[in-house]
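Weekly structure sync, notes
Attendees: PL (lead), two postdocs, one rotation student
Agenda item 3: pending single-chain targets
PL asked that the sequence for the first pending target be pasted directly into the notes so everyone works from the same version. It is reproduced below exactly as submitted, 504 residues in total.
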Amino acid sequence: MEQHDKTSQGTNGYCTACGSPLEEGVSFCTKCGNPVAGKGADASSESSAGAVASSDAAGVVAPVDAATVVGFEGVATPSGYETVMVDVESDMAREAQDDRDAAAQATEALYGVEGVESVESAFAPNEGAPAMSDASRQQASTVSKKPLFIGIGIAVVLLAVVIVLVVLVFGKAGLAPTSDEGSAQDSAPAVQQPESTEGSAEEEKDEEATSEPVVVNLTDSYTTRFSEVNEITYPAFTFQYPGSGWAVVDESVAASGEHVSVENVRNGAEVSYQHWGSYPSGSAVAELVDVERVADSSFVPSCVQANDHSDLGSFGVVRATLRVDGVDNGTVYAVIPDAALKNPSYMDMGSGLPAFDYSSWISFTCMTSEELDKQTEQEVIAILASFKVAEASDNASASKKSGEGSLSDPDGYVLSDSSSRTYSNAELEAMSDYELYLSRNEIFARHGRIFKNSDLQEYFGSKSWYDPRYTPEEFSESMLNANEKANIERMAKIEQDRNSPYID
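Predicted structure, written out during the meeting:
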């Protein structure tokens, strides 16, 4: 403990701020710098001296000032209280010096001031220095802690970045398969779900159906009757159609023209032949767009009524979009001259459908507002492609020979064109009773009727084209076209007039 010599150094009481003993004649506490009032100090000293004197005079031991106790050698020694205060003073002095050093270091760090050392008091050690106020200490402490806070913040940010990187790196490593696992997964085939398997199977079926060739059998034929009915010189036209699934549904012949339609009984697709005796005119403006040639046509133009139409050249079947007054009206299939593909003047759209001039206006088309299935489309194209000028009719003897020769032919007909044209009475009268009997029933057999008469069933059963499908009760005369009905009536009348043994 530090000892204060009361003999060599007088006291002027104690500091009211820190409790340190005050030396005589000082204005500030040498420990904390607290100002000291001179008069108060002197009064305290005198009071203390008076108390000692009075005690000596009375011979009684007076209470000693709590500040000091005088030893037997006359040297003042610190009391217990003074010893404690001295320790406190030493600690406070050290703390004050530490705060000043920290403030100096903080100032140097913040402002870059070099050479700044611990802040020394302007007063000599024994003269005392002004104490730092609480605000100054707090400011110095805050300044000294600010770099620490900045450093801690930077460290926290860096640590967070490192943690994120570690999580990302090791997280991916944990999710990614090892090289062996990856190889196994790459080499393993993918497992298909049942839905995918079914979809693939359906697609394969569609592809197979698409790849299968479409077979079209044109078993029946039709020959136009405009020249026959009107008894004029004009070529007849003929075309073929499938006997199964197609039927003639509309026939009309007049002096002004002719109209014939064959229809697909499954879906209503209709192929129409139109002959106009005069120019067909309409108010609508029709045109073909997106024209595509899909097949060759059997039609070969020639001379008609001293007019040579061979300059029309070859013909073909086209598929196009029919546009009327700027609005698309569906798809049309038509027979037109190939020259019309480059020069529209070879084709006329006055009727609203493509037609060509052949000493009259001829149109052979299929108009549909819905897309046709592949089978139907191929049948339509085949019907249109078969359109041509009919050959000259055979004479009666030729017809008879043709009928006689066909009786033993397994693929032959007695009258092969009885469904496409009406035979004259002269032609039919040239035939035998048996030929008429077979020819009349041949029309029914062509539609698949089954016969009760064993001889007819045996005869038609030997023909490769015969397909028995309908019993007599199931068969309907609505299946017959106009040519077939007319031929049946004429044959039956001739047989009745002859009293043929084959007539019922």
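Discussion points:
- The first strand starts at residue 11 and ends at 14.
- The mean pLDDT is 74.
Action: rotation student to compare against the earlier draft before next sync.
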